[in-house]
Amino acid sequence: MRSIGRVEPFLVPAAELAVITHHGPLADVDLTYGELGAYTMRHEISVTGPLREYYLHDARHTPDPALWTTEIGWPVFRAEHHQTDSV
Predict the structure, then answer these.
(1) Does residue 17 sit within a domain?
(2) CA atoms of 52 and 65, how far apart (whole Å)
(3) What is the pLDDT of residue 87?
(4) Any idea where the GyrI-like small molecule binding domain is (predicted)?
C-alpha cells in the first residue's frame, strides 16, 4: 500500500466489536451512534481503538437515502478484563 496525497494506508487491527446497523440517510446517523453508546454503557463495555463504518448500501447502489444501510462497529472490551501497558 502506498500514500496518495495526504491519505496514508492504515491497517485496522482485529477487534471484538459492538455492532449496530443504521438504516436511512447519514444525516441522522448520530442517533444510531447514540443507541450504540447507550448499549455499551448498559452492559458496562468500554470502547477502544478506531471505529468502523461499513457502507453496505449507499449512493453507489441507490440515489434514495432512505434505502441506505450503514454498519457501525465499535471495538470493545469489558473494563475489568482490559490491561494496559505500564508507562
Answers:
(1) no
(2) 20
(3) 44
(4) 6-76
Q: What pLDDT shows up at residue 86?
A: 46
Non-local CB neighbours of 41 within 8 Å, separated by 6+ positions: none
Query: Residue 31 is part of which domain span?
Result: 25-49+73-80
Long-range contact set of residues 82-85: C-beta below 8 Å, sequence gap at least 24: 82/46, 82/48
Domain count, the chain: 1
Nearest Cα to 75, choosing from 39, 38, 48, 37?
48
The string of pLDDT tens digits covering residues 14-69 is: 889 999 999 999 999 999 999 999 999 998 888 888 899 999 999 999 999 999 99
Q: Which residue has the cell 454503557?
A: 41
Does residue 38 contact residue 74 with C-beta atoms inside 8 Å?
no
Residue among 59, 35, 56, 37 nearest 47 (CA): 37
